[in-house]
Amino acid sequence: MVRVLSESNREKLVSIKAGSVTMSANLAIPAYARGVVLFAHGSGSSRHSPRNRYVAEILRQAKLATLLLDLLTVEEETLDRYTRQRRFDIGLLAKRLIYATDWLHHNPLTRDLRIGYFGASTGSAAALVAAAERSRDIGAIVSRGGRVDLAAASIPLVRSPALLIVGGEDIPVLRINQTALAQFCVEVQLQVVPGATHLFEEPGALAEVAQLASQWFVRHLIPVHQQT
Fold this sequence. Notes:
alpha/beta, Rossmann fold, 8-stranded mixed β-sheet, 6 helices
């Protein structure tokens, strides 16, 4: 169902309880939003990542709401700069994604919208684990340069169509994603962006990621009669 949720793309800072901690997130809902995409950033990144923010803007142009989320608190992030432990704690990150998923389900502005996950690097692994646990709730997944090997045990349980986007020059991650293809039991595609490295910093590379992600989410989150 198409609903008028907001008249602007302006982001609103929201707080999401996750057990004993509170996560910060930026929620933006365009007018006539037809789906919502929850972003799971990679190791050492945050909801302020310019790459994810660029992708989010392209998704909003396609009438998809976005929730950019910090999976770690400020205190945890500060400590993690030295220990580098929590950023690879995929189980913890996935649990917090599930808390955010539940928050979207209960929020009056988003509860009627189908949910997609956009994961980057280690965030992709967290997205896959969370999607495997909430198979009925997640309509689609997009992974950018994903460390999907860190979610190997969960991949066969994923029931959400998955798009894996990898840079053609990001050889180790490309091999990881090629190996993972056979583990999926649902629709999965691997899209290689020629000449791109892990962060897709090359001219036009991130724009291609954003367009591929937008097309995937529109296809899988939005009913066909609403895709015009």
